[in-house]
Design brief:
- This protein is of the alpha+beta class and 249 residues long.
- The longest helix is centred in the N-terminal third of the chain and has 12 residues.
- The protein has a 6-stranded mixed sheet.
- The protein is globular.
- The chain has a domain of 169 residues: 4-Layer Sandwich (CNF1/YfiH-like putative cysteine hydrolases).
Length: 249
């Protein structure tokens, strides 16, 4: 495994394996340099295939790649779809690899304390507000108190600028999420903010806590600021994707 790739620092069971790639360790050329496993962003197909071959040396099987649509659908390995249209996946059998791809959106990895089920979710703000984390937890079918969650690298709270409609979408469901937004600029005293800086990590933690998940790790990396390690769609527009993967050994 490339030394720049990230292994979650969490108290997962011994049979749970997981990691998140960075932009290092692959064969793609700029602006996809170099570990881009995404086939939908304009990178050369032979480079994407080469990067996926590199990934396969560190995982037991080909991942269940998803057609991500910023929704809340959860795909299961047992369903047998080749590339399901979903934003989360779940596995209960050893060797089945769940994967999501991101470049500013929040990748979220799940396991239970007993090591019987794992899942991965892609949580952009739309999917997060739409309930992708809650749907993933429900699909795991274990008590929320038994679930461990790791929040991978995403756009940080100092750079994730959103409109008021995003803030309201979260606050309408969970008023406590107001603490995850601060004005993007200081206007006059009688001027309402039009743009906000959102803390996607805090939003995820609040929503997870609301359904009883308290064991949450990670949430301290910024894809936008860390140019060396991470792709960022907001920063570069044309860019690659990181993969976050989890499976039972």
């Amino acid at each position: 495994m490339h030394p720049d790739w990230i292994v979650p620092d969490w108290s997962a069971p011994a049979n749970v394996r997981a990691f998140m790639t960075t932009r290092a360790g692959g064969v793609s050329q700029p602006p996809y340099d170099s570990m881009n496993p995404a086939s939908h962003v304009g990178d050369a197909p032979e480079s994407v295939a080469g990067n996926r071959r590199i990934l396969r040396t560190d995982i037991p099987a080909e991942p269940l790649w998803l057609e991500q649509v910023h929704g809340s659908c959860v795909a299961k390995h047992a369903d047998g779809d080749a590339t399901p249209c979903a934003d989360a996946s779940l596995a209960r059998q050893a060797g089945q690899v769940c994967a999501v791809m991101t470049a500013d959106c929040l990748p979220v990895l799940f396991c239970d304390r007993a090591g019987t089920v794992v899942a991965a979710a892609h949580a952009g703000w739309r999917g997060l507000a739409g309930g992708v984390l809650e749907e993933t937890i429900a699909a795991m079918d274990v008590p929320p108190s038994e679930i461990l969650v790791w929040l991978g690298a995403a756009i940080g709270p100092e750079t994730f600028e959103v409109g008021d409609e995003v803030r309201l979408a979260f606050m309408d469901q969970h008023p406590l999420t107001a603490v995850a937004f601060r004005p993007a600029f200081l206007g006059t005293l009688d001027e309402a903010p039009r743009k906000w800086l959102a803390d996607i990590y805090a939003l995820a933690r609040i929503r997870l806590a609301a359904v009883g998940v308290e064991a949450v790790y990670g949430g301290d990396l910024c894809t936008y600021k860390d140019v060396r390690r991470f792709f960022s769609y907001r920063r570069d527009a044309t860019t690659g994707r990181m993969a976050s993967l989890i499976w039972l050994a």
